[in-house]
Each structure stands twice: as C-alpha cells, then as structure tokens.
C-alpha cells in the first residue's frame, strides 16, 4: 500500500505507539496515509479504538513475526 | 337550549383535535429528540478530569498514561494534583522513588539475566526490607531498568507528551502551602494553583472523572 509517512514504533509500549501515531498524523494533510510499525501486542486493539474515536480510518492491520503494520488515512 | 346543542359538537371536536395534536407532537418530539441527542453526542468533545494524589514512581504512571492517551483521542483533559500528587509536577521527576516496603502486590524481579532468573519472585519480608540500607534506592533502580527494557515511556517523557497535547495541569494551592512548597519548585506549565471549589465544577461536567 502507498503511504506518505512511516512511523517506527517498534519496541515501544502502551501508550507510546498511539501517542506517536497521533503526533505523526498531525504532520499529514487530509487524505494522506500513515504507515505504523509496532511490536506492542496491545496496539492491535488500541489502534482500532484510536481510529474509531478520532475518525481517522484504519485501512489495514497485518501481523508478521510479532510485528504489526497499520495503515491509517488522515481524515 | 338550542344554542347549547349547537355548541356541543364543537366542544367534542376541540377535545378530539387537542388529543390528536398532542399525540402528534409526542410522536414528533420522540423522533426529533433521538436525532438531536445523537447529533449532540457526535458534536461534543469528550472530556476527562483526573485527581492525582500519589507521588511515587509507580503511582505516577497511571494518571499520565490515561491523560496522554485521552488527549491523543482528542479529548479535553484536566489533571488536579493534590497531596503527594504534587511530586509529579516537580521539575525533576528522576527523584521519584518506588518502595516495595508495605507494597505487597509489587513484583520483585530482576531486570537482567536469563529468563529463568528474571522470572524469580524475590519475596523479602517487610522486616528485612526495612533494615537493608538503600533498599528503596535499589528497588527504584531495578524498576527503572525494567521500564526502560520493556519500552515503557520515561515518566518525564510521558508528562512532556501530556503538556504538548494541551492537557491542563492544575495544582492544589492548599497542599503547596501545607508542605511549604514554592511555585518555583514546580514546572512552569502548571496552569493554575487553585482549590477544590475550582476543580469540582470542571469534574462535574466531565464525561470521565478519576481519582488516582
């Protein structure tokens, strides 16, 4: 998937992946896509909740070798 | 007599009309109320207030984690720091300690070594803990190591993220006086020094209000 910015949140624990995702989204303009890579297992549910609460659609979530990749579109 | 009979149907019609109007209004009101409430809920920015009363390293985390996360979700957040919670507003958070003494739920584990070693629970009785010199300093050092190794944010970093996200930090003036502190002991980002009477109306209007 094409993206405009990538955030490496590997090795970070709750709530840092969410806080850094929020900060990165702030740097994007509406419609742009952010890729987030995380290793915190709690981030799967948390990213979904964050997307619902803030209205920035979560385009996809994938897992590979305990690494989670999220794509979010800035609303 | 003739006049009265003439008026009778009219009275009956008025009553029926009133009833019909009233029923219609009730129906419309219910429909519109639902839509209006949903609209108001969608437009409202959620808010949270937290009362932070503890000043040890372990107790410092929950208020700052919840506040920073709520701010990231776009909520309005205000934190009221009172009693030992004021420690969380001091300029240097590195001085905060954690004490295993009288803290029976705290796991005592080593942050280094192989997995089997790290999984050992070091049950040390309170009576022993209390006589070992610098036991608290040692426990704090171990806790900080564990925090760093697991990628958990440093408390100062977390507080910084709260400030950056616009969380309102409010200090209890009464406790500042009680403990003989000066405003200059605290970070300049403290928005206000107030009493319970100022904070409670904020908590009253908040969607979430926590005492930690």
Short description:
With 75 residues, chain A is α+β, with helices and mostly antiparallel strands.
CATH superfamily of the largest domain in chain B: DsrEFH-like
How does the major sheet of chain B shape up?
5 strands, parallel
* Overall structural domain count of chain B: 2
Beta-strand residue percentage of chain A? 25-35%
| CATH architecture classification of chain A | 2-Layer Sandwich
Shape of chain A: globular
Computed CA radius of gyration of chain B, to the nearest angstrom: 29 Å
The percent of residues in helical segments of chain B reads 40-55%
Oligomerization status of the protein chains: heterodimer
Descriptive keywords:
heterodimer, A: 75 residues, 4-stranded mixed beta sheet, 2 helices, 31% helix, B: 212 residues, alpha/beta, Hypothetical Protein Ychn, Chain: A, 2 domains, 5 strands
Could you describe the 3D structure shown?
The complex is a heterodimer of chains A (75) and B (212). Chain A has two helices and four strands; from the N terminus they run E-H-E-H-E-E. Chain A is of the alpha+beta class. Chain A has a single domain, classed as TusA-like domain (Translation Initiation Factor IF3). Chain A has a four-stranded mixed beta sheet, with helices on one face. In chain A, a hairpin with a 2-residue loop joins strand 3 (58-64) and strand 4 (67-73). The two termini of chain A are 17 Å apart. Chain B folds into two domains: 1-43; 47-211, DsrEFH-like (Hypothetical Protein Ychn, Chain: A, 3-Layer(aba) Sandwich). Helix content of chain B is 50%, strand content 11%. Chain B contains eight helices and five strands. A five-stranded parallel beta sheet of chain B has the order 4-3-2-1-5, with helices on both faces. In chain B, helix 2 (57-72) runs parallel beside helix 6. The model of chain B has no long low-confidence stretch (mean pLDDT 87). Classes of the chains: A alpha+beta (75), B alpha/beta (212). The interface between A and B is medium-sized, with 15 and 12 residues.
